[in-house]
Design brief:
This protein has seven helices and 21 strands. With about 325 residues, it is mainly β. A hairpin with a 4-residue loop joins strand 15 and strand 16.
Length: about 325
């Protein structure tokens, strides 16, 4: 079974920039594209298959039809027709709000939804690009509330200058923000539960200050202080470099200038393939070839036993599975 390609879901946002459309080779007049949802099963924002025999089907419809053949037996038993990951490209012209996400237990109790653990891989960075992640010093929940009220919360957050290739793993509960000049690939649990903590006094499209979730966030925050919130790795050319392994997803990097193969025979899961740079061909175990270029994302069915990446020159990929 060939990999599936989906129509990107583009989001015009007040902090969005102008990089996503040219990066993905899309001709659009939509302004301020902040996010391109590459794979989504979020209600109301379900990805739609682009081309082929299943064209026009939403991702949940495709799972309902193909079941474990598409997502894997264990994944289908756990999630049914809900796709468990939300995969995006994000372009921040301005700073996003300071946010935190609840974990599974708290989100289920309050909202009947999954929590949100996520990761960022920095694809591009303007001069001065930065990200915020975690606390720089120990604070209490009471101090957190005070700092939100007196606009000093950012004084106790770690701020990182970033460059392409930087990696951040963000378990639920970690305060964070994507900031100006950052272009990232984001992989996360399927959840739309976000607590906005601080928004620099900005107003939304309606001219009113955007809603803050100060009290909800208070119990969701992990106040632990770490020496470094970045994730460090050593990339090896033309082989798989594992970046993140957690209960919600495993993500790897392929930096290629020669063919590489991934054995999927023991993997009871789909495989998401995001092309970050360059172009090439993905060869499935039946010998079918699927072109893949920068900014494109493919969903490889769980039924595939192996996959081969053949770059045209150089190609950089992220792969994710459960």
């Amino acid at each position: 079974m060939k990999p599936f390609r989906f129509e990107p879901i583009l989001k015009s946002l007040i902090w969005g920039g102008d990089k996503i459309a040219p990066y993905k080779g899309i001709d659009t007049s939509m302004p301020n594209i902040g996010e391109s949802w590459e794979l989504s099963g979020v209600a109301g924002d379900e990805s739609v298959v682009a081309g082929g025999a299943y064209a026009g089907r939403t991702l949940p419809q495709l799972i309902d039809e193909l079941k474990e053949t598409l997502v894997g037996k264990s994944v289908y038993e756990r999630f049914g027709t809900e796709f468990p990951l939300l995969v995006k490209f994000i372009d921040a012209r301005d700073d996003l709000s300071i946010q935190v996400h609840p974990d599974d237990a708290l989100s289920q109790m309050r909202h009947g939804k999954h929590g949100k653990t996520e990761m960022w891989y920095v694809v591009g960075a303007d001069s001065g690009a930065h990200l915020k992640a975690g606390f720089s010093q120990k604070i209490t929940p009471e101090e957190y509330e005070r700092r939100v009220a007196d606009n000093t919360l950012t004084d106790v957050l770690c701020d990182y200058a970033v460059q392409p290739g930087d990696l951040f793993f963000l378990p639920a509960g970690r305060v964070h923000a994507i900031c100006a000049g950052s272009f990232v690939a984001e992989i996360q649990q399927t959840s739309d539960v976000t607590y906005r903590i601080y928004d620099y006094g900005r107003v939304g499209k309606d001219g009113k200050p955007r809603e803050l979730h100060t009290e909800l966030a208070k119990d969701a925050i992990d106040y632990t202080v770490l020496p470094d919130y970045r994730s460090h790795y050593a990339s090896e050319k033309n082989s798989e470099t594992q970046l993140v392994e957690c209960p919600y997803f495993t993500t790897s990097l392929y930096d290629l200038d020669a063919p590489a193969e991934k054995d999927l025979s023991e993997l009871d899961s789909f495989l998401v393939v995001m092309c970050l740079a360059g172009r090439g061909v993905l060869v499935d175990d039946e010998g079918g070839e699927t072109p893949l270029r920068q900014g494109e994302t493919l969903l490889v069915p769980a039924a595939a036993r192996s996959i081969r990446f053949i770059p045209e020159g150089e190609m950089k990929l992220l792969t994710s599975h459960l």
